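Model: You mentioned two targets. I'll fold them one after the other.
Researcher: Yes, keep them separate.
Model: Target one:
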Amino acid sequence: MKLQFNKTYIILTLLLFTAETFIAIFLKTGFIRHTFGDYLVVILMYCFFKSFIKGNHLYIALSVLAFSFAIEFLQLANILKPLNLQNSQAAKLILGSTFNFSDLVAYTLGIITVIIVELKSAKLCTL
C-alpha cells in the first residue's frame, strides 16, 4: 500500500458526497434516506480512501466495511450520550444515533457492489 493521488476516485468521491448531501438535506424519511444513503456511504468512503491510497481493493473495501460495522455497533451502545453529543445534529448525522440491522445489510451490499465493480474493472484492463 502506498500513497498516490487518483483523480478518478476523487471525482467519484465528490459526486457521491454531493448525492449524500442532497439526501441528508432534502429527504428526511423513507428508503432513500435510511437505506440507500447507507449503501452509498460505504461506496463514498471506499472511493475517498482510494483517492489517496494505492493498494489491494479487497483489503480497503473490507476495512471500510469493518469501520462501518464498528460505527453501527457504537450506535447500539448509544455512544453519543457518553460523549455528550446526543443533542448535536452534526454528530447524529455523521455517527448516527440508532442501531438498525438493515444498515449492516446496506453496508454489506455497498461493499459487495464495490468489489464486483473493481473485479470487472480489473478484467477490462487486462483485455
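Model: Target two:
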Amino acid sequence: MEVFSRDEANENTQKYDRMRELKAFDETKAGVKGLVDAGITEVPRIFVDRPENVQNAPASGDSRFHVPIIDLEDIAKDSARRKEVVSEVRSASKTYGFFQVVNHGIPTAVLEEMLDGVHRFHEQDAGEKRRFYSRDFSRSVAYHSNFNLYKTEAANWRDTLFSIMAPNAPEAEDLPAVCRDIMLEFSKQVMKLGVTLFELLSEALGLNPNHLKDMDCAKGLVLLGQYYPKCPQPELTLGATKHADTDFITLLLQDHVGGLQVLHQNQWVDVSPVPGALVVNIGDLLQLISNDIFKSSEHRVLATDMGPRVSVACFFYTAAPPSPRLYGPIKELTSEADPPKYRETTIMEYISHYSARAEGTMALERFRL
C-alpha cells in the first residue's frame, strides 16, 4: 500500500487510484491494526485528511469551556439532590450536548473489564478476528475498519467491533469468545443506566420521568468497541472525523489516552478522561424530538502517537429490528409561539439519509420544517 506525505499526496492526486487502495486495505481484513503490525512508518494516502479538518487546537486552556461532570449519587433517594442534577443535565444538554457522569452505578471492575475485552478482541490472532469481518450491516455482530470506508474523502485511523445488544441480544456463542461475557454484562448495566438518564432528561424537559422511555428511546442498544492504534503521523489523519450521532443519546466509556473533542462555539474542547466516568452526548434524534431544546453537538477523535486508545460507544436507538414508529417534536414542547421545527421521521429513514448525505453536511437540516 502506497504512503505519501500530505504535499506528495496533493501532487499525486491525478495518478492516485483511491478505490484500488481502499479495496487492497479492505481485503486484508486486518484493519488499521494490521498496518501497524506490518511496521508502517507513514500513514497510507487513504487516511490522509485535509489540513483544515485535522487542525489540532483545542480550547481546553480557556477556562470558559469545560464539559460538565455530573454526580448521580443519591438521586434516587434525595429529592433535593435529584432536582439539582436535573438542572445540571438541562444546562449541559442545552449548552454543550455533552456531559460526563460519575457515581452512575456501574462498578469500576465492569468498566475496566469492558475496556480490557475490547483490547483482547482487537489484539487477538488476526485469523480469529477475520471470522467476524464483514460489511454486511444487517448482521448483529461484525468487525470492520471504517463502516463508511468507500464513501469518505479520508478513512479514519480506527477499527471497530459492532454488536446490536438490544432489544434482541445476540446469542452468547455469536459474540467473540474473548469478550462475550463482559459484552453481555456491560450492556445489561448500560441499559439500566440508560433508563435513569432518560428519566433525568425527561424531567429536564419538564416532562413526566417516563416520557422518553415510553417513546422507546431506551429500547435499543448498539455497542461499538473502538480501537485506535498508535499512529506514526497523527498530524495527517483522525481517529474519527467530525460528526454528530444519529441516536437519542450515546454513552461512551473511554480509557485514559484521551483524544475526544466536542465542537463548542466553533472551538474544539477536550472531553478529558475522568476515572470511572461515562460520557453522555445528545444525538440528533433527541434534538429533533426536543424541538431544538437539547443540542446534538459535533465531535471528533484525534489520532495519537500514544496508545492504542480504546473506547466503548453505546448508542440508544432501535435500529434492528427497524421500528416503524414516527418521531417528531414532542407535542408538550411545542406551542403556537414555538411550533414544531422538524417533520416526523422513522429511525431508519433518518439513518438512511445520514448515511447518504454529502460529507460535511448536517443530517438534521433535511428534516427541518
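Researcher: Noted. Anything on target two?
Model: The longest strand covers residues 159-166.
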